[in-house]
């Protein structure tokens, strides 16, 4: 790296051939270089900058035109909406006037249908109560029957001895045999 720097520094010590030479004084060359670069930029960049500004101006004007058109459309839609609102308000007033009689009719219909529903519910309630009463009566009957049967079996078992028990079993087996022959 040092060799490259030395070669540029050594260029500054060459004897000048006429008016051409390399000036290595940074403070003297910077303003000159900047003015040359700015001059070239202004000369060649003026058209590009002008085109960019014109395009930007056109886009802004188009945006303004579009905004104006949208605003006019919005105003038209607002007027149409206001007209529809007035029409709906008039219809609402008409419905309000006509609606009171319909409300009264619907109220009477609702009262009638509700009373019918209540009557049906009352019937269902009575049927359910009757069913539950019958079920409770049947359960009580079954319990009474089971308790009577257990009491009879208990009495029978306590009074039967083995011989009497065997004779009862034999008699019942004989009865079942006769019943079987009858059914066959």
TrEMBL record:
UniProt topology in membrane: Single-pass membrane protein
Keyword 4Fe-4S: no
CDD domains: ATP-synt_Fo_b
The keyword Signal belongs to this UniProt entry's keyword annotation: no
Family recorded in the similarity comment: Belongs to the ATPase B chain family.
Gene: atpF
Subcellular location: Membrane; Plastid, Chloroplast thylakoid membrane
Name assigned to this protein: ATP synthase subunit b, chloroplastic
Source organism per UniProt: Callirhoe involucrata
InterPro entries assigned: ATP_synth_b/b'su_bac/chlpt (IPR002146)
Coiled-coil stretches noted in the UniProt entry, renumbered to this chain: 64-98
């Amino acid at each position: 790296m040092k060799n490259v720097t030395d070669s540029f520094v050594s260029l500054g010590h060459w004897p000048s051939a006429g008016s051409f030479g390399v000036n290595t004084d940074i403070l003297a060359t910077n303003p000159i270089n900047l003015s040359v670069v700015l001059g070239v930029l202004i000369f060649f960049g003026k058209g590009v900058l002008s085109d960019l500004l014109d395009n930007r101006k056109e886009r802004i004007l188009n945006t303004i035109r579009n905004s104006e058109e949208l605003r006019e459309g919005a105003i038209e839609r607002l007027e149409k909406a206001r007209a529809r609102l007035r029409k709906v308000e008039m219809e609402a007033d008409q419905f309000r006037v006509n609606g009171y009689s319909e409300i009264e009719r619907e109220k009477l219909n609702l009262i009638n249908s509700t009373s019918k529903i209540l009557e049906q519910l009352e019937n269902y309630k009575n049927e359910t109560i009757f069913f539950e009463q019958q079920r409770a009566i049947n359960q009580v009957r079954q319990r009474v029957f089971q308790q009577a049967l257990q009491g009879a079996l208990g009495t029978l078992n306590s009074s039967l001895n083995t011989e009497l028990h065997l004779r009862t079993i034999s008699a019942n087996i004989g009865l079942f045999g006769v019943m079987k022959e009858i059914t066959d």
